[in-house]
Design brief:
It is built from 3 helices and 7 strands, in the order βααββββββα. The model has no long low-confidence stretch (mean pLDDT 96). Strands 1-7-6-5-4-3-2 form a 7-stranded antiparallel sheet. The longest helix is centred in the C-terminal third of the chain and has 20 residues. By secondary structure, it is α+β, with helices and mostly antiparallel strands. It has a domain of 90 residues: START domain (Alpha-D-Glucose-1,6-Bisphosphate, Chain A, domain 4, 2-Layer Sandwich), CATH 3.30.530. A hairpin with a 4-residue loop joins strand 3 and strand 4.
């Protein structure tokens, strides 16, 4: 198993960031525009289309407003046989926060492409959310 954890500082209030994270059907417009080009919701399943054309089906495992935490699992695909990830927003004063994004997955050989996608997504998140 491999794990990637990113601690993303964002120059915006935690409530603002959480509002974008929890908007499950609008990540392509509010959370990571350009990096994700489309999002479709069907019950607890979310289909996410990335700018590369890669499509991931994600099971929404938990959406905890009190903890400002979203847990999800990308369904098995050509890259990974197992995946579980979460976002958690942590306030740092009234005008800043950290977004902790952690993913655990199999096989371990997927670490380089998964880390690359996460780092690219994190840069978009920081720019998009920190500019509001």
């Amino acid at each position: 198993m491999a794990s990637v954890k990113l601690d993303i500082p964002i120059a915006a209030p935690a409530a603002h960031v959480w509002d974008a994270v929890r908007d499950l059907g609008a990540i392509h417009t509010r959370f990571v525009p350009g990096f994700v080009t489309d999002t479709k919701l069907d019950g607890d399943m979310r289909t996410v289309t990335f700018e590369t054309g890669f499509v991931a089906r994600e099971l929404i495992v938990d959406l905890d407003g009190a903890a400002m935490r979203l847990a999800y699992s990308v369904q098995p695909n050509e890259l990974m046989s197992h995946h579980h990830a979460s976002f958690q927003v942590i306030a740092e004063g009234e005008t800043a926060c950290r977004l902790v994004w952690q993913a655990d997955f199999l096989p371990a050989e997927a670490e380089a492409p998964v880390r690359g996608m996460m780092e690219q997504g994190a840069a978009v998140m920081r720019k998009t959310l920190g500019s509001a």
